[in-house]
Amino acid sequence: MESKMKEKSESVVDMSPTSAVVEGGVQDIYGEDCATEDQLITPWTFQVSSGYNLLRDPRYNKGLAFTEQERDVHYLRGILPPAVMPQELQEKRLMQTLRRYEVPLNKYVALMELQERNERLFYKLLIDNVEELLPIVYTPTVGEACQKYGSIFRRPQGLYISLKEKGRILEVLKNWPERKIQVIVITDGERILGLGDLGCQGMGIPVGKLALYTALGGVRPSACLPITIDVGTNNEQLLNDEFYIGLRQKRATGKEYHDFLDEFMKAVKQNYGEKVLVQYEDFGNHNAFELLAKYGSTHLVFNDDIQGTAAVVLAGLVASLKLLGGSLADHTFLFFGAGEAGTGIAELIALAISKKTNAPVEEARKNIWLVDSKGLIVSSRKESLQAHKKPWAHEHEPVNNLLDTVKAIKPTAIIGTSGVGRTFTKEVIEAMASINKRPLIMALSNPTEQSECTAEEAYAWSEGRAVFASGSPFPPVEYNNKLHIPSQANNCYIFPGFGFGLVMAGAIRVHNDMLLAASEALAGQVTEEHYVKGIIYPPFGIIRKISAHIAANVAARAYGLGVATRLPQPADLVKYAESCFYSPNYRCYR
Ligand code: NAI
Question: Which sites bind (S)-malate (predicted)?
C-alpha cells in the first residue's frame, strides 16, 4: 500500500529524490506541499461550508457560540473546545481584551482581525460600544492605520482598481464575490483626512466608512463595497517604501485620470445598475468638486466631505437657533476656510434660507461670507478665484486678517473650516462676544491640534456665553461654576442614515433637498433636555434611532421628488427603516 502511494505521489509531481523524502510527518501524497512555481495546481474549494471551513468563513463563523446541535450537524466536534459561549459573553471577553491594548493602532488591528474572523461579532461590538470604538475604526486611529497600511495589510477588505486595470474595470468588478452591492465608498487616496496623499493605502477610509454604514446605518455588510482607485501617488516617502502596496508612479492627472474615472463610473452602472450609491471620500479638492458636478446628474453619487459635512453642520445651526433666537435668515455667517467643507456648508445654508424665505439663492448668499488663505473673498478678487468660491465674492473692500473681518462683517456665527489650528484667537472670540449675546463658534478643523480653538478657550474668552461645536471631540468644561458641554459636528451623524434612506427608497439621484431633509431630521432629534445643557447635537449613543429618522426623511423626500424606484412607498417610513436594519445577532443553522 505504502509503495503504491509513493508511486502515485511521484507521478503527480516530478520530485527529485531528495524532496520525495518526507521527514517526520505524514507523506504528501498529492504533492501539494511540494508544488513549486513551475508545477501548476488548481485552487479549489467546497461550496457549502462545514467543519473547519465553517470556522474560517467570517460571514458564518460563530466561534464558541455554535450550539451543541450545530457542532454535531456541521462537523465541529473536537475542532472547538467544549464550552459553548453566548454572543454576549464573547462580546464581553473581546471588549476586555481590546481595553487592555494601550496603543490605539493595536486595537484597530485586533478589530480588523475580528472582522475577518467573525463578522457578526465585529458588528455587535461596534454597535453596542459605538462611542468607545468609533475613534478606532474611524478618525483618528484609521488615519494612522492608513499611514501604516503596507505593514498591517493582511487580507484584502475591498477592491483595488489600479491603472494596470485600465480597459478592464468591469472585469475587475466582477471578481468581487458579492453581486448585490448597494453602497460603494471609493477614494483615490489623494487627501486622506488631514494627512495628505496616502495613495493606495487610503483603503482604510472606505473600509472604515462602510463598517459604519452597517453599524450605524443598517446596510448589510455584503451589500457594501470598499474601493480604492490607484492612479499613483505623489508621496515620495511611500514611493520609496519597500512595503508600499500601491503603484510606484506619480499620480496620473488630467485626461488620463478623468478617462479612468469615467470608465469606472460606467462599469459600476453596468454591473450594479442605477440604484447603487457611490460615495466619494477624501479625493483632492479639485477632483472632488469636479466628480460631484460631473456625475451628479447621471449616477447616484454623494460626497461626504462636501455634502455630508454641509448637512451635519446645517443641522447644528438649525438646532442652535433655539439658543440664539431668530431664523437662519436673521443670522450672518462667516467661514474661515473656503474649501470643500466651507463652501459645501455655505451653499446648503443658502439653499435652506432660500427655501424658507422664497428668496432666490443668490439673495440668500448675501449674509454668508467666506475667508480663504488670501483673506475675505470679495468681488475685486473674482477673476482669480476657483469656481466654487466665485458665488461668495460679495461687494466689500479687501480685508486680510480674521479679526478685522469679524469687526467689519459682524457675524453672529464663525465657522472654522481652514484646517489651520489656533486661528480663533482670544481677540477674535472676544470680538464675537462683544457683538453677540450668544456667539456661535464652530471650530470644525480636524484633528484636535488643527481645531481653530479649544472648547475651553471658546467658553473662557466669551465669558461662558458661546454656543460651541467642534469637528474633534472636546471634554466638558467648567467655567464660572457651570458645566459647559461642547457639541461635536461629527459626519457620522448624517452619512449612514442618508445613504440608508437612498437605498431604502431605491433612489436613483441625490438631490440637495434630500440633504436638507437629513439636516431637519437630525436637528429634530435635539430635545429640550439637550438645549438646557447648551448642546446642539443629540447624544451619539442613540445613533441607530437617529439614522432611522434621517433615512425616513431622506426616503420621503426621494418619493416626493419622484426619484424613488422602490414602490409602493411604505406607510410608516421610520418603522420601515428600523425593520430593514441589519442585525448583528447570530443566526441558527439547520
Ligand atoms: P480644503 O483643503 O478643501 O479647504 C481648506 C480651506 O482653508 C481653503 O479654502 C484654504 O484656502 C483655506 N485656508 C488654508 N489656510 C488658511 C489660512 N491660513 N487662513 C484662511 N484660510 C485658509 O479642506 P476641507 O475639506 O474643506 O477641510 C477643512 C477642514 O475642515 C479640515 O481640517 C477638516 O478636517 C475639517 N472638516 C471637518 C468636518 C466636521 O467637523 N464634520 C467635516 C469635513 C472637514
Answer: 191, 446, 490
Dihedral sign (CA 526, 530, 531, 534): negative
Q: What is the CATH number of domain 307-492?
A: 3.40.50.720
Q: Which segments of the chain belong to CATH 3.40.50.10380?
A: 140-299
State yes or no: 491 annotated in a binding site: no
Write out the residue limits of the CATH 3.40.50.720 domain(s) in the chain: 307-492
Contact 119, 58 (CB under 8 A): yes
Q: Which of 444, 468, 536 to mutate to test the pocket of ligand 1 (most atoms within 8 A of CB)?
A: 444
Burial class (CB in 10 A: 0-12, 13-18, 19+), 175: exposed
User: Which regions of 188-336 does DSSP assign to beta strands (E)?
Assistant: 224-230, 277-280, 300-303, 333-336
Task: Find out whether the beta carbon of 534 lies less than 6 Å from any atom of ligand 1.
Answer: no
Q: What is the pLDDT of residues 432-472, one digit of tens each?
A: 999 999 999 999 998 888 899 999 999 999 999 999 999 98
Residue 179 in marked binding region: no
pLDDT of residue 47: 74
446 is in an annotated binding site: yes
Residue 143 Cβ contacting ligand 1 at under 6 Å: no
Is the CATH code 3.40.50.410 the one for domain 54-117? no
Q: In whole angstroms, what is the distance from residue 56 CA to residue 422 CA?
A: 49
Cβ(341) to ligand 1 under 6 A? yes
> What is the distance in A from the centroid of ligand 1 to the CA of 470?
13
Cα 138 to averaged position of ligand 1 atoms, centre (Å): 19
Are the CB atoms for 574 and 523 separated by under 8 Å?
no
- State whether the beta carbon of 284 lies less than 6 angstroms from ligand 1: no
- pLDDT, tens digit, for every residue of 469-502? 999 889 999 999 999 999 999 999 999 999 999 9
pLDDT (0 to 100) of residue 10: 41
From-to residues of CATH 1.20.1370.30 in the chain: 54-117
